[in-house]
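go over both lines:
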Amino acid sequence: MRENRIKISTPFVELDGDKEDFKNWSLFKNNIICEFLDLDIKYFDISTRNREVTKDKVLGESLESIKKNKLAIKCPTLLETPELTQLKEKTNIFICADDSIKAVSQVWNDLFQAILKDNPSPCLEEFLKSLESAVNSASTIDEILTTLTSQN
């Protein structure tokens, strides 16, 4: 991990779920977002298996955390659930439409734009411009990372 990461002090919630086929989400988050940004992420696994194990307690905990932190991001979702519909109606949650690199990049960008409204950061704004340019010119996460590394 880079030593000179951009500090984002606004906490937000990440909802993870059933994503066996969603490799780009994890790669993008771990290799790009967390490589360049120092984030305060409140993580919740709301996969079917974990919901069964916790008897849906994790859903209540995640909703409370979203209410407290006011921002959330969700990995791609195959099925719309009543709980997810409730979250979307009551919170500021950004849900990834699919696992394409552009969709994953867009949902992270939407989250960071919401953060920038209350906490302007020239460093974050510059990073987001570089990221958008890299995503538009690359076809893989490795290419995006190479482009960003050469710029920063």
In short: Residues 8 and 121 are 9 Å apart (CA to CA).
